[in-house]
Amino acid sequence: MMDDLQEYLAQSATGHKNLCPRQVLGVRMGRYAARLLGFDPKQVEKRLLVIVETDGCFATGVSTATRCTIGSRNLRIEDLGKAAATFTDTKLRRSVRIAPSAESRSLAERYAPEVPDRWEAMLEGYQRIPDELLFSWQPVELLTSIEAIFSKPGVRTACQVCGEEIINEREVVRGEQVLCRSCAGFSYYSPATAQTLSVVDLQPAHQVAEPLHGASTPGKNGNPATPGRSS
Q1: pTM assigned to the model
Q2: 102 close to 86: Cβ distance less than 8 angstroms
Q3: Cα separation of 119 and 20, whole Å?
Q4: pLDDT band, very low/low/confident/very high, at 229 (cuts 50, 70, 90)
């Protein structure tokens, strides 16, 4: 079992500069979800929907363990800033939400007492803590139906305001007007004005701006001289 875990962790680390505690949590959580829902961890992508509550290293770990990806449309991000996720069996319509237990960080130091560094202790400890102590979980129900999340393949329309194509049934219908979510008032951006857009904003991508005063100078191979570590 430990060799199997190490295989998943090695796969997760390939997309990052190194393995970090949040990747370990993501991999362990994905495997735990498979056990709770009665899946073979290597086959869950055929019927599993995962909604992850943050992006970054943790999401990579979950994706590695479940084989669910954004490109396959069975991994979704609802960015709540939490290292938690909801796993749904789309055939049996069962969902569980899993999060790290409140004691997970303190337990990590207990399960890796030989490691003096707190970050390293979490990296090692999260691999050793039993699932039942590392995580808390509860059955949940999705507020959006599975059918609405995945939508009908091949369905497309166009916004009657901006003219852009809309796929996956994400249009908003108001009266007889079909709108994209941006034109309906749910946009995450606004057009830049002449006052806010400058020549610097439009410089070609190959032109590298001068580093800010006081910024760290890249070391060898372009890596920062003092990289940070996530926990």
Answers
A1: 0.80
A2: no
A3: 9
A4: low
